[in-house]
Each structure stands twice: as C-alpha cells, then as structure tokens.
From TrEMBL:
Protein name: Cytochrome c domain-containing protein
Gene Ontology molecular-function annotations: cytochrome-c peroxidase activity; electron transfer activity; heme binding; metal ion binding
Bias (Low complexity): 545-561
Region annotation Disordered: where it falls in the sequence: 534-570
PROSITE patterns found in the cross-reference section: CYTC, PROKAR_LIPOPROTEIN
Lineage, opening ranks: Bacteria, Pseudomonadati, Pseudomonadota, Alphaproteobacteria, Rhodospirillales
Keywords recorded for this protein, A-Z: Heme, Iron, Metal-binding, Signal
Location of the Cytochrome c domain: 339-460
Gene3D superfamilies cross-referenced by the UniProt entry: Cytochrome c-like domain
Amino acid sequence: MKATIFATAAAASLLLSACAEPPPPQRPVPVKPPTEIDGLWYLDQSWSQDARQWYYNTSQGSQIMRYDWFMALEDPQTKAPFVKSLTRYGYPVGTAGPWNPDRLPLGFVKDTDPDKTEWFGMGCAACHTGDVTVNGKTIRLDGAVTTGDLYGFIAALSQAVHTTVTVDGVFEPFAGRVLGPNATPEQRLALFDAVKAFDASFALFVAQSTPGTPWGPMRTDAFGMIFNRVGAIDLNLPANSRHPDAPVSYPVLWDAPHQPRVQWNGLLSNATAIDALGRNSGEVLGVFGKIALKPPKDIAHYYYDSTVRGRELVAMENLLRTLRSPVWPDSLAGPVNTIKAAAGETIYQQNCVSCHSPLPRGETYTTAPIIMVPLFNWAQPSNAKAVIAAFGTICTKGVDAAVAAKMITVNYAADPKMAVDALCRKMDTGAIAGIAMPPKLLGGTPLANPDLAASLLSNAVIGAIIGDLAREPKLAGDLLMGDKAPAPWLAPRTAATWSASAVTPEGTLDTTPLVKPGQPLSEDHKRVIAALSQQEKPQGPVPAPAKAAAAASKAAPSGRAATGGQATKDEEALAETIKSLLAYKARPLDGVWASAPYMHNGSVPNLYEMLLPVSQRSVAFKMGGGALDPVKVGVDSAAATSTFLFDTTKPGNRNTGHEFGAGLTDTQRWELLEYLKTL
C-alpha cells in the first residue's frame, strides 16, 4: 500500500514538473552588492573609498571667494551659516574625514595659494556626483548627475554677500567671525571695502549668468557659462555677455574618458591625455577658475597665468578612466524581471544597438563607441559651398530661417540651440586680439577680432596649460605617462597647497619663465606643446572643430556665400565638419537608469517616455530631488522632493526627437525598459 502511495506521489511530482514553466533566466551581475557607509549606499563602481573621497574633495583651481569669508557668511533667510544652506540648493552633505575636515557639501573644496590664501571653490564632484533616493534609501552614484541647482546657488550666494555689506547689523558679526574680537577699526574698514568690491563683481557675474528660461536643478548652460566667464569677466568686456539659455544635463562621467569625442555635440576630440586636460581646463574656467588674459610680455613667458591645477586634473581623469557604470541595485530598487529583460534584449538588438553599442560589463575596454546623430538634413549635402552657406544662415538668422529658405530640413528634432550656440557665437577678443596660443612659431593661430567664442576659449585654455607647464614641471611628465602617472589618493593626505602663483586682482602674469635663460625646452615640454598646437590644426581630413567653425563663419558671414563652382579641398573638409558637429551624441547606455532626466537638455523625465511618440510625452513635469521612479525608470515626479517644474514649451527645453521607440507596442516598451535596467 505504502509503495503504491509513494509511486503515485512520485508520478504526480514528475507530471507537475513537466508542466511547470522553466525557471527565469539568471541576471549576470559580476559586481559586489551595495555597501552602506554612514547612511549612504554605494554601488560597486570600481573605486575605493579613499579614491572617491579624494575625488570629492580635491581642488581643480576654482576660486569663488575667500574661504574665511564664505565660512563666516550668514544666510539672510535662515540666519544660520550659509555653508549649511547649500543642501537647500540640491548639493548633498559631504562626508566627514581627513579629506574634508570642515565637512563641506559634496564637491565644494578649499583651494590654497602659495601665499597661504585660502579660497572656497567647486570641484568636479559638485556637478558629477549624484544622490538617488528609492524606497527610502539614498544611493550615492560616482560620476552621475548632480541634484544641485547651480544658478540657485550662485544667486543666493550673491544675495548673502550683498546683505552682509548693505543691511544694518550684519557686517559687524561677520567681521568678528573673520577677524576675531581684537581687530582694529582699520582692519574692519579694509575688510568692508574688500567685501563690497567682491559684492559688485560677483553680482555682475550672476547678472550675466541669469538665464532667460530657468535651468532648475541638474542642468546648466555649460558653454554659455564658460563663454561668459572668459569673454566677459576675464577679458573685462561686459558687452560679450549673453544670457545662457541653452541648458544641458550634466553628462555622466563613466565611459567619458574612453569616448573619441566629448560634449553633447562632440565638439572636442578626446584621443589623448592632452585633449582631456584641455577639456577639463575649460571646465575649470567656467566654474570660477581665474585667468589673466593679458598679452604675454615675451617668448620666455608666453602663456596666461591661471588657477587651473593641471596635475590634479590629470589625476582626476586617470581616476575616471577606472570608473564603471553602476549596476541596477536589485536589493534597493527592486529586482529586474529577467524574463521581460530577455525579450527586451532582442528588441534592443533590432532597434537600438546601431547607435548605442553595449559595453561588456566585467571586461576591460579602452574605447566607448559613439554615434553622432545629425540634427538636420542638408538640401544639397554633396555641395560644400551650399552647406557652408546654410551654416551661415543658421548662425546669422537662425534655424527657422534656414528651413524657410529650404537649405535644410529637420532630422533629429531635438532642441538644437546648444549645438548652434557652441559653433556660431562670436566675441570681441579685446586685449588678446592677434595673440596665438601656442605662439605662431609653434603652430598657433592668432585670434581675429571678433572671433568665435570657441576659438577664444581654445586660446585661453592652451595659454593656461602652457602657464601650468611653466609652474609645474612635473605636469608634462604626468601627461606623457598617461594612466601610469602617480595616484594621489593612494598617498597620505597633505596640505592642499599649489606651487603656482596666485592671479593678482590686476591680472599680472607669473614671473616663472617657460624657458630659462640659456636652457632649451625639455623634450617633454616640446612634445606637450607640439600636441597643443595640433588641437588648432586640421586632424586628418577634417579640421579641428574650433577652426572649422571659424572658417565657416568667415566663409558665410551672412548666409549668402556663393554656392556655384567647384569647391576646394578645404571647403569640402569644412562642409563635412559642419555636418558632423551639428549633431548630438549617442553613447553607450550602460548605467542609463542612473542618468535621468533624458535627452541632452533633460527634457524627458524617464526612460518609458523616451520610448513614446513626442505627442505622448509630458509637456511639463516636476523634478529636482533625485527621487527615482523604479517602474518607468527616471525622475519620480510625484515625490515631495521634486519641486522644480520643467516646462518643455520654454526656449531651450524642447523634448522632441528620438522617436525610435514610437513604433513599438506597449508590451515591447516595457520589455525593452526592463532590459535597459540591466545595462
């Protein structure tokens, strides 16, 4: 009897097993599980805690205001120290430790000049480290989009400084905190005059940085801010200023060092450590780095004095080369549906892979492939003269005028303002008109007047790097060593000093000669300067971006250039460069779940809406606090911390384009979305 029962049970078990569905496919995640440190969750992105703390707290040369002033500043709204108010503008609390003894907010740092003057400034992490909150847990993502509101911060800082010198009863306590109780009346008066002068200059900067359309958190007009800073503030030419109204999301930094071209429009080549230093030096100048744009006094001192810290920038880039994208955290955000993800992988291969090549996780790679997606279709793409003429019309009359003249039609209908501004904007070059960086005998091109803003910025960046080479002899070696250069996060913490001289208020040049009397340039210096000169020269069959924009602008100043006749080889190359740069970049999508909001300008809140037709996307949505919607994957607009209203009808905020998912069924969209979580 028992044998019969057991046999029957066994047969039933086999029958049920045969009818059951197979187990779901396993999700390979060759990374360590999340780690909690001081209430924050960190994902395995291949960085040690020492490395990330060094990155969070190392100066790149940004100097917003005197450090002792900033720490003594009072928030007029709360009457508390202003430093404690930065979280109100989306900047996360920093981690206490030897790298951050004053516990500054994440990404804000102390910079110390050789004369021991200390400055408060911004580091890379202020814009490229993000906190994401999901299911009550906060995940700190290295290299991700900040939740900070840059304009909100600088406007509030300006108001706090202004209140200090204009409202009764505010300056005296401030002076006591800065100078101590035993300061003389003369010392207090000198401090008042200095703060008042800073108030005026910083208020001007904020006014010139005020966008017509609010950026809100997680975005900035990067090129607009840099162009204003260099062209209007550093050159002391206020007429060069323009409201920065082409905002973009802060790009995620994992994979960025491995991409052949960087910036949303691929404006900058990224083949070497010197290319990377140029890009990063330009970024420093846009976030309160100082540079004295004065004509060099002689060939031995042929550079611009600046606060750019080249060795630190090289080390940061080397560290970023090791950064991997974060893996979707099942234990915190909920498990991936692997059955849907498996179906979604097939859809990805059919619809997405041609532009967004997957990067194999767990494997070493040196190149992150990108695709430039053209913004426009050219009416006469094979006629170089016609392309140059159309570009002239775009720059002088606008995109709509070029469309009306039937020179172009819209292809990838994303908001084109960022790409057009970056290539078309011109500026008065003032005191450095006619100056070449590097000098003409080493291959540099003199600045015209006016000239392209991109050309002015390139000139300033190269001059700053040459200046740093003069002050920091080891910089050339670091550049040539590449990722074999020293890793400072592995060394004991030392004082944040810098061997370069400070820029004086008058903008005087450093006295350190690049070439010492009777001594030739070192071989390292020769190689680095030769590489800098190549940034201004044609690269292969296509001219360098800044040179191409300048040549196109001169060739078609009013959009009425001749379109007949045989084009020259230079015109042919120029036309190809124009077409390639009026485009936006499609990059690998590893870690895409952690890079919301989407599109280059942050105009789409989540990945689900990226797969919808434009007509079905949100016209407006709330964002800002870093809350993650784990279902639609992106901004959780319903979260209490999402307080900024993003209006896609405003200039620069257009959410059109990228309708490659419009033809999918809704089931397919959800399957593809699940697969995107796994990248």
